[in-house]
Amino acid sequence: MQLTGFTDLALRILMRLAVLGEDGTATTGALAEQLNVSYAHATKVVTALSGLGVVDARRGRNGGLRLAEDAGAISIGSVVRRLEGGPEQGREVVECEGANPCPLRAGCRLRGALRVAQEAFFAALDPLTVADVSAAPTQSLLLSLGPRPQD
Question: What global pTM score does this model have?
Answer without folding.
Answer: 0.85
